[in-house]
Fold these 3 entries.
Entry 1:
Amino acid sequence: MDSPIVTLTTDWGTKDFFAGMVKGRLYSMIENVRVVDIAHNIEPFHQGNASFIVKNACLGFPEGTIHIIDVNTIEDKDTSFVVVRYRGQYFICTDNGLPYSIFGNDFEMVVQPNVYQDSNFYTFGAYHLFCKIAKLLADDTPMEDLGVRVDSLKQSTPLNFVRRDDNLLCYIQYIDNYGNAYLNISYDQFISILGNRQFVLMVKGNKVSCISTSYLDDPTPEHNHKTAVLLTVSSTGYLQIAMQKASAQQLLGLYVNDFVEFTFKD
C-alpha cells in the first residue's frame, strides 16, 4: 500500500498526551502513513466496549490496513501480544480475550511477535512495540517473520441473550455519546425469534411495543413525544433503546450490562 493506513482504538482518553506520542512515532517511522482515530474514549480496560467498536468501525477498511488496539494492554507470562490477520487486515493487540470476542477463531493467521521493543520498561506497549510492528507490516514483512504462529486465541465468554418460549432477555452492550443503548441482539435475530407474534419491551417502567424506523417516530402520541422511549435499529444492525433528542442513558438510568426483557404474545 503506497499510503499505509494505521488506525488507533484505545482507552487513552483525550486529556493526556498518549495519542499524540503514538501518532508522532507512526508519522516518523512510516512514510506516507495515514493515521485514523477510531476511538480514544473507551472506558479504561473495558474490553466489551472495545470489541463492539472494532467490530463496527474497523472491519470495513481496505486490505492491508493496520489496526492498533490498545485497551487493557498488559503483557505477562499468561497474556501475550498478538498480530491477527483477518480479511486481509492486520490487528495488533493483546491476547486477553478481546481479539477472540471480535474474531472468534475465524481468522487467517495469528502470531505472537518476538519483535524487541525500544525500552526496558513495559508501561506503554503501543508506543514502544506496536508502532515497530506496524512499521514492519507497512514494509510488507511477512507475518511469519514477526514471531511464532499460534492456532487459537485466548477465549472470552461474552454475555448472550437468553431466549425462552414467551420472553427474551437481552443486555445493553454499548452506550453511545447520545445516550442510545445498544442491545446485544441484531434486528435480524430478533425478527427471527419474534416470528408472527407481538412483543412488549419494558424499560424502567416504560412500555415499548413497536420498532421505530427513525428517531422522530412517535409511538406514544398520547404522551409527550419529546420523552418517548423508542426501540429502533442502529446503523450497526443491533436493536437500540433511544429517546427523541434526549439521552436514554441519563433519563432512564441505563448502564452497560443492564438486562431488559421482551415478552411475546400471539
Entry 2:
Amino acid sequence: MKYESVIINGLLVLEDQVVRKNLGIRNGKIAAILEETEAIEPETGAGEGTPRILDAQGCYVLPGAIDTHTHVFEPGAEYREDFAHGTRAAASGGFTCIMEMPNSNPAVVDSDTFFLKKSLAGAGAVVDYAIWAGATAANLDRLPELKSLGCVAYKAFTLDAGPAFPYLNAELEMEAMKRIAGTGRVLGFHAEDPVIIGELAKKYSSQTWSLRLHEEARPYYAELSAISQILLFAGETGCPVHICHLSIPEGARLIARAKQEGVDVTVESCSHYFLLNTENSEQFDTYALIQPPIRSRGRMEAMWEYLQDGTIDYLATDHAPYPAGDKEPEDGNKWGVMGGAPSIDVAFPLMFGEAVTERGMSPVRFARLSATNAAKRFGLYPQKGSIRVGSDADLVILDPDQVWQVDRSKSYSKTKSTRFPYQGRTVKGKVMTTMVRGTVVYDGADICVDSGFGQFVRPEK
C-alpha cells in the first residue's frame, strides 16, 4: 500500500502499549501500523506542503489531545479570544480537537445560536471542534432539538452564570437529568453551591481581595456540596453526568465512591489544579483567579493520587484568557474580576512533563487522560482519540527531552499578557508536530493551514 505520509522511528502510544513502529497515513486516516523493517512507498502527488516522511526519532507519537473544556468567547467577547487565535494556540499545544463551551453571548441554547457558533467556528478553526449546548433554566424544551443538531453534550451551572445562561436550581437539575437520561448525551456541570458562595460573598466582599481570600470565599465544601447533589440526582435518574474542572480531592473521593455504586459519572480536571496552588501563585494576583479556585499545596498534591489511580477521567484546560482590562479593574475592586486563565497552548506538554517524566505515569495512561477517555465518553471514538487503523490521523509528535520556557508574548492566543501563571516556567517536553486528519497544522514553529481547516465533529449516536 502507498501512503501520503509516514511517521518513522517514533514511539507510538497505542491504547494498551508503547511500540517502536512506523505509521502510514492515507486520506486523512491512519492506514497502517508498520514494522520498522517494512518497506515504505510514499504516495506520489500528495497534497502541497504535506510531508512525505516525518522522522520522530527520540519522540513519542500520541493521539491528538482533545480538550473537553474550551472557552473561545466567540460570539460576544472576541477581544478576549476567537476561533482563529484559540485553535492556533490549541494546535501549538498538541490539541487536535476542542469541545467549545456554550456560555458565550448569546449562549448556545437553541438552533439559531447553535448555527451561529458553528458558523463562526467553521470560518476560524484550524483544528476540529465539537460544540457543547447549554442546559439552562429557560431552554429545557430545546434539548432534543440541540441533540439533533449534533451537540456533543449539555452544560449547566449550579450557581449564577449571568443573565445569558440562567443556572439550574435543585429542582431544575433533577428535571434536566430526567429529560437527558437515555438520550445518549451527557450533562456536564460547573459545580459550586450557590448558597454557600452567596453567604461568603457577604462576609468577604468588604475585605481586600487576595488569592487566599478568593479560595476561602469559594471553599472546597461549596464544590463538594454541589457535586454531592449532582451524584445523588444522577443515581436517581440514571442520567450520565460529567463534573467539570474538579479542583478538590474530597470531590474525587466522592466520585470514586459513586462510580463503585454504579452512578454514571466522569470527571475532568485541569493543569492548574495539579501545578498551581495558593502558595506558589500569589504573585500572579487576579491573573491566577480561576473558578473553582486553585487550592492549597496539600490539596494539589492529593489531586495527583486520583489522577494516577484513574478516578479522574480526563485532562481539560478550561482555556479562558482575559486581557488586562478584565483582570485589573479601574476601581480596584478585584472581587468582581472574571475567573479564567489561558492554558490550551501549554497544558499538554506541561502535564506530560510533570505526570510522565517527573511522576512516572505511563504514556498510555496519559494518552487516555488527554484523548481516548474523552473520545469514548462523548461519542467521538474511534474516529478520534486513538492511534488505530481507520481512525483520523490526529497525532502529536512530542520530544520528551526538549526543554523550553513558556513565553505568552509569543502565544498564538489573542490575549498575550505575560502576567498569567506559567509565564517563564521551564517545561521538559515540547510539541514538535501536530497533525489533524493527516495534515500538519503545526510544525513546531508555525501554523501550516488556513482558518477554516478545522471541521465540525459530532457524536456517532
Entry 3:
Amino acid sequence: MKSNIFAIVFCLAIAGAPVVVAAESGNSKDGETVEEKDEKEPSKLEKIMKRFSIGGYGEAVYARNFYSDNVYRYSRPEQYRNDPSHGRFDIPHAVIYLSYDFGKGWKMSSEIEFEHGGAGSAVEQEFEEAGEWESEIEKGGEVELEQFWIEKSFMPQLNVRAGHIVVPVGLTNAHHEPLEFFTVYRPEGEATILPCTWHETGISLWGRAGDWRYEAQFLAGLDAFFFSRDNWIQGGNGSPFEFKTANKYAVAARIDNYSIKGLRIGLSGYYTHSMHNTMPHDMEGEDQYGNKKTYDHIKGKVAIGALDFTYNDHNWIVRGNADYGYLSDASEISEIKRNRTANNAPYNKTAVGKNAVALGMEAGYDFFSQIAKTRADNQKFYLFGRYDYYNSYIPEHDMAKYEFTGRHKMTFGINYYPIPQIVIKGEYSKRFFKTPFNDEPSVSIGIAYMGFFN
C-alpha cells in the first residue's frame, strides 16, 4: 500500500515538474524552462493590444445664467432687463479615441465625438425669424466623426496624414481637450467665430525638428451660404448632404516653437474661396450664350491669421490668443443668401461680416504647489482669471450694424485636479455690452477627464 502511494506521488511530481529543454535543441536558452519561455513570449492577443490605443475625454456642466433667454433680448433690451435667470445641464463633449499602429511607420487613428449628450435633431428658436421654432439637425445632440486618418511616418521630421483631420488654426483648435483651458466651456472668442473643433477631410504634412513643429494641410473649402452674423464662418465647414461639397479647396498651416523652457508660441493661418462651394453648382461659369453668370465674380475669399502661446512653468499656466479674419464680398454674399436662394434651402439667411476678431488671455497659479502633502500627491489647485474680447460681425460700410456682436467677457474661477487626468472646475463670468444692451453674468460648474486607457 505504501509503495503504491509512493508511486502515485512520484508520477504526479514528474507530471507537474517543469521540463528542462537542452540548449542543443535550439528552442530555449541553456537551462530555461518551457514555462519561463511562455512568460517571455507574448501571445498574439498581447501583441495586438500593445499596438492598440484607446482613450478619450469628456465634460459635464451645470450653468446658471442670470439674464434673459428671450429671442428679443438684443433687439428690445429694455423689455427683458429684469427677466428671471435660467439654468442648464450639458454634456458639451464626450470623445472616444481609437488608434492602431500597423508597424513599418503606418498608423490609423479615429475620434468619435458625442456633443451635448446624444444624437439626432434638436428644436431651437430662430432669432432672425421672429422667434419661430425650427428643427435643427446640426444643433443639439449629435454624433460626429471628428477624426479618421491613416498616417505614414518616415521620420520625426516628416509624416503624411490623410483622411478626416483637425484644422489647427487658433489655440483652441490645436489644443481643444478640456484639460487645456481653465474655463468650464471652451474659450468663448475662438469658439464663436471659428469651427470648434474644426475638422475637415484632406491631407496633412507635419513633423518636428528640434524646437520647431510644423504642419501644412490641403483641405475641402468652406461654404459661404452657412456663414452668419453670430458665428462668422463657423457653420461653413458643415454640410447638410451625405457628402462634403468640394468645388473649392483650402490650405491651412501652423508652426510652433519650443525654444524657451515652458513656453510654446504658435502661428497659424488659413485661406480659401468660399463662394460657389455648394450644390447645385450653378452660380459660376458661363451661360448658354457664353456670358459670365451673374455671381461668377464673387469669390468669398476667407483669410485667417492667428497667434497663440502657452506658458507652463514655475507653477503658473498662462495662455493667450489673437485671431483675425477677413471675408471678401461680404455684402454681396449676405444679399445673395437672404434674397437669391430658395426659402426652403438649408442655408443661414443672416448677414455675414467682412471681418471677425477674437482676443483672449488666461492665467492661473497652482496654490497646492506650496503645500508639501498635496505637491507630493500630485494634486493641483489653480485660481485663474480670463479676459476675452470678440466680435463675430464687423460689417462693410454699406451693411447694417449690430452693436451686440462685439463683446467683452471676464471670468474668474478655480481648477482642482485630484489626479492629473481629472479636473473639477468652477467659475463666475460676465459678458459686457455697449449701452443699451444688458450685461450677462453666469455661474458654471463642470467636471472633465482626459486620458488613455491602453
